[in-house]
Write a structure and sequence with these properties.
The complex is a heterodimer of chains A (about 150) and B (about 90). Chain A has about 150 residues and is α+β, with helices and mostly antiparallel strands. Chain A contains 4 helices and 7 strands, in the order βββαβαββαβα. The radius of gyration of chain A is 14 Å and the shape is globular. By secondary structure, chain B is an alpha+beta fold. Chain B is globular and about 45 Å long. The chains are: A alpha+beta (about 150), B alpha+beta (about 90).
Chain lengths: ~150, ~90
């Protein structure tokens, strides 16, 4: 088993597969290459291609999962660096969880409160809308994690 | 006519510092010590962003680089000065 990630656009289509050296069944290491992809496809408002919808990664097991402390601090760091809100799906072999920063929490508020978690699993909260798209390659993402 | 390319002259053990914040990116006008600690480099960058001192990055009193990474690149034949980049970290962990 290997954790795997992909970068996807606003229609859930894969922009980039992320399978870096040093990945394991419990971690994906920091990667300058991944950051460069995210930066290239950031919002058009800040000079990017505007394609970036989010980053999905696997927790390679059956059953539900949650975001780890490392996951949450990466979600936060990337959004602060890009200045934009993304989708952060975490996919197991049987479930998918769609994390996203609460809409009423600004980047400034998140920056000012580093110990707070502002990311919510939208699939677990019936009061919140489900994502309007799915990952085109979700089964390939799972296959690459086995 | 050949284009004149002026390479920056930096003191020995100095580096150019590039920072990414809030969808913006820029170089600190002043060189930084290449061997400064990550914490010191992030403190310099934070202070510069707070004061609007980095061209290309608007002043932001809320800057927080706590979860950012410092990448260091030594001088090469092509780029004859050291560079330091501060950018968001990207690891994931189950």
């Amino acid at each position: 088993m290997m954790e795997t990630a992909l970068v996807f656009d606003w229609e859930g289509r894969t922009i980039h597969w992320h399978e870096p050296p040093g990945r394991s069944d419990g971690a994906l290491p920091d990667s300058r290459d991944l950051w460069d992809v995210l930066w290239e496809h950031r919002s058009k408002k800040t000079g990017g291609t505007g394609r970036l919808g989010g980053v999905a990664h696997t927790h390679p097991w059956d059953g539900p999962t949650g975001a780890s402390g490392t996951d949450l601090s990466t979600f936060r760091a990337v959004e602060l660096g890009l200045g934009q809100r993304l989708w952060w799906p975490i996919v197991t072999f049987t479930h998918s969880h769609w994390f996203r920063r609460r809409a009423n929490v600004s980047l400034a508020e998140m920056a000012a409160q580093p110990d707070q978690n502002f990311f919510v699993d939208f699939r677990r909260d019936p009061k919140r809308p489900n994502p309007f798209y799915a990952l085109e390659d979700i089964e390939e993402l799972r296959a690459r994690s086995r | 006519m050949d284009e004149l390319i002026v390479q920056p002259q930096l003191p020995a053990n100095a580096a150019k510092l590039n920072v990414t914040w809030a969808g913006q990116n820029g170089d600190l006008p002043d060189p930084v010590p290449y061997d400064a600690t990550d914490g010191d480099l992030k403190a310099m960058a934070s202070e510069a962003i707070t004061n609007g001192y980095i061209p290309g990055i608007g002043a932001d009193a809320n800057v927080n680089l706590g979860d950012f990474i410092v990448d260091r690149y030594a001088a090469t034949d092509e780029i004859p000065y050291s560079r330091v980049f501060i950018r968001p970290k990207t690891p994931f962990g189950a």
